[in-house]
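Dear colleagues,

As part of the handover before I leave the project, I'm documenting each prediction I ran so the next person doesn't have to rerun anything. This entry is a single chain, and its sequence is reproduced below.
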Amino acid sequence: MLLPLAHRIARAIARRVPRSLHDDVRAAAAIGAWQASTRFGAGTKDQLRAYATQRIRGAILDELRNHDWMPRRLRASKEQFSQFSLEEYIFAKDPIGGPRRGYPEPLVALATQEDDAQAVRDAEALRKALRRLTPRERLILAETYGRERLLQAVADELGVTEARVSQIRTLAIRRLQETMRARR
């Protein structure tokens, strides 16, 4: 009874993690089901199912946390970043040079005072270069770098193959690099 439940929960969670972790998710789900069956006391079938669901999800999340190199606090700040587009994040400065209220501290604002003028010029050049990209190229860069989505997820959203998303991203990066090199 609990193993089919474990497989169903594992499939739902596995859709949101890299394929390299799918086996680990399934194994953690099976362990969670086993733990639920051995630790559950007397109760109805529905109570066991509710308890097992929580145990299985918890076991999977524990396993994913073990594989995650990023501490929870850093992950939370990364998710705050994902609310903003790539361009909003890079250029989130008010007119006097500080970060805008509600935005994470942008990369440009981290420059020292001596580098500030150059950083502003570089940021403006990057902004212009980003505007020259096609909307599809900007979307792919924002989704893969800004929101750190998998290429396959972006490909599914755009209705193209993962390889095509990779090609478009590579071309967009190359165009940005060429534009920035030409400035120097």
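The chain has two domains: 2-68, 74-183. The CA atoms of residues 46 and 138 lie 48 Å apart.

All the best with the project,
I.
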